[in-house]
Amino acid sequence: MKMSHFTRRVLLGALLPVLPLLTVNVWADTWPSKPIKLIVPFPAGGPTDTASRILGQKLSERLKQPVVVENRAGASGSIAAKQVMESPADGYTLMMLATPTLLAPHMYKKTGYDTVKNFTPVATVYDLPIVVVVNPSQMPTVTDLQKLITYAKARPGELNYTSSGPGSFGHLSMELLKELGQFDMRHVPYKGGVPAITDTIGGQVPLMYSDLVAALPHIQSGKLRAIAVGSPQRVAMLQQVKTIAEQGFKGFDAVSWGGLLAPLGTPKEVVSRIEKEVSEILADKSVQDRMLTAGAIAHYQNADLMAARIKNDDDKWGRVIRDKAIGVD
């Protein structure tokens, strides 16, 4: 029996709202069906790369598909971020966002992306504590943050500090601390954490705001003295060192961190699946221990919390960058 034109139109109209749902369900059921690319915006060997490889290995085991880590360094991760932003939103391209890449649009004139608007947050993966260290031979009386501030105020314009580079998270954090504590020091930037630490140990610069993974061996050997950590809570590797918040700056929170991003528009069901897998992977004590060895603290937050964290850091540190006229040509 032939179907009337009117009847066909009614049936088609009834099916149209259902078709997208059917497509999403099929997508969620079949994903992943091929290798997943995990873009790391920094060179191999650092904590972001190491954390990505640990996570990638575990994701591969659980998803039954290879997770291929690809390092795309340059311009604080801007090159990698642009690549991911322009990739298909199909769940097969992810990026390990790190704080420098989050803030790069404020630092560079043309990055071509907006961290808040152009990506889909998936889950946070790790925190990377930063620590204020001094050369104990150069500054024997500076054993805590308040003594540093007293020391600096007694020497206006004379005291230098360093970081791993202009616009590095250590640089931004110290500039915020100087503003809150109403004291002054000159920033002497280095190209990388290793030469900066080397000259801090050598006494060329007496003070540094460093990431913990780079400074920890020298703190343990006594070549550097840790006087404060930037995270809201004390860190396990330096349990005896008070936070900046505990030393007179309530609410101070300066933590470099990393988390998974996907291209904007990635299906929610795929994001939820990855989010769930990351949560379970980071709950594994052996994974936590492996990340800790790399200097990173496993820290899971879901997609909504990660989105809020991106927005908060973008606003907070973007203001510091603008107010202090910090930028890279």
What does this structure look like?
The structure is a single chain. The protein has 329 residues and is α/β, with parallel strands linked by helices. The chain has 2 domains: 18-28 and 35-127 and 255-323, D-Maltodextrin-Binding Protein, domain 2 (3-Layer(aba) Sandwich), CATH 3.40.190.150; 130-247, D-Maltodextrin-Binding Protein, domain 2 (3-Layer(aba) Sandwich), CATH 3.40.190.10. Helices cover 44% and strands 19% of the residues. The protein is built from 12 helices and 11 strands. The chain has helices spanning 5-15, 19-30, 47-63, 78-85, 99-107, 145-153, 169-181, 193-202, 212-221, 268-282, 285-293, 303-323; strands at residues 36-40, 67-71, 93-98, 119-128, 130-134, 160-163, 186-189, 207-211, 225-229, 256-263, 297-301. The strands form 3 sheets. A 6-stranded mixed β-sheet has the order 2-1-3-10-4-11, with helices on both faces. α3 (47-63) crosses α10. The longest helix is centred in the C-terminal third of the chain and has 21 residues, at 303-323. The radius of gyration is 23 Å and the shape is elongated. The chain starts with a helix and ends in a 6-residue tail after the last helix.
User: What is the makeup of the main sheet?
Assistant: 6 strands, mixed
CATH class of the largest domain: Alpha Beta
CATH architecture annotation of the largest domain: 3-Layer(aba) Sandwich
Query: Can you give the mean pLDDT?
Result: 91
Strand content: 15-25%
Low-confidence stretches: none
In total, how many beta strands? Answer: 11
Q: Which homologous superfamily in CATH is the superfamily of the largest domain?
A: Bordetella uptake gene, domain 1
Q: Provide the helix percentage.
A: 40-55%
Radius of gyration over all CA atoms, rounded: 23 Å
Structural class, please?
alpha/beta
Characterize the overall form. Answer: elongated
What is the H-and-E element order?
Answer: HHEHEHEHEEHEHEHEHEEHHEH
Lateral arrangement of strands in the main beta sheet: 2-1-3-10-4-11
Number of domains: 2
Q: Helix count?
A: 12
Span of the ends, CA to CA: 73 Å
